[in-house]
Amino acid sequence: RKTLWSQAKEFVSPKAWAQWMGMTGIDEVDAPMKGPFYYLVVNFALHFLIVFGCFAPILNPGSGIMWDKSGSILINIVLMVMSWYCFYKTWKTPPGYVDNSHPHIATWRQRYEDTLEKYAEAMDKKSMDALPQLCHTCHVARPYRSKHCKVSRKCVMLFDHYCPFVDNTIGLWNYKYFYWFLVTTSLGLLTFLFTFFSYVRRYHTEYGVWPWLTLMVGIELLICLFPVGGLAAYHTQLTMANLTTNEHINLRKYKYMFDQHKKYRNPWFKGYMGNFMDRMQPSHACYMISQEHQPLQSQTSGEENV
Description:
Layout: H1 4-11, H2 14-20, H3 35-55, H4 70-92, H5 105-121, H6 125-129, E1 134-135, E2 140-141, E3 147-149, E4 154-156, E5 161-163, E6 168-170, H7 175-207, H8 212-223, H9 225-241, H10 245-249, H11 272-280, H12 294-300
Antiparallel strand pairs: 1-2, 3-4, 5-6
Helix pairs in contact: 3-4, 3-8, 4-7, 7-8, 7-9
């Protein structure tokens, strides 16, 4: 059991933060701490207090010094609400498990049993490599682009990474909410940046002192712009390439991403706009290989589309 001190050390560890943001190829998370999730919720609350306590003091409108900036404040509020909504949907939407909720789970379980028998008959490594990848924990043959998540203890379709900041695994069905959460939060922090420093400057002019508490809280919020904005840019690149974080970091592990000449060839690449729409309108086709790339199956593994 982790002590409060050990959790505090983990919370400030650069390695832990890189892993929490899905930026490593190491799948070590078994039972992640709740600290990142609560840290994000607290930052949401702090942002709310600054906006409605300083920028637009709705309980004491006469004390407001930023009412002439109501347009930028309104934009920040709209982005804040959108960010909250996307955060909630990412948190509560199942990523897409290969379990009883999957419409073809019986097929994947039967394929698991059939593949076990074929393993016994395989005579060489090449024959074994041509068989589907199995998950012996879930007792299924894994669909393309799926991976077993150690946190949820289930195989996840289009597995991206586990994110402790939203307390959920990111996969097929909730990736679009996660992506827009990053985008709206980044834009919200950018609009907050200009309004915040304008408020601090006016406060000092009006009262002759600096609002130190507000200043410290605001700077802490703005520091979040760097990792969140970086992730938004990174996931925009992934979306345009129709790749997951897991595939990008562990690309060489997935033979279906290469042709017979070992040249990179993404079977799901549909052009930049097509890739974007594919991720924003998820379906089971997102992990099926089209007829154009069917020969790739026999070159890499024996998995079949369902």
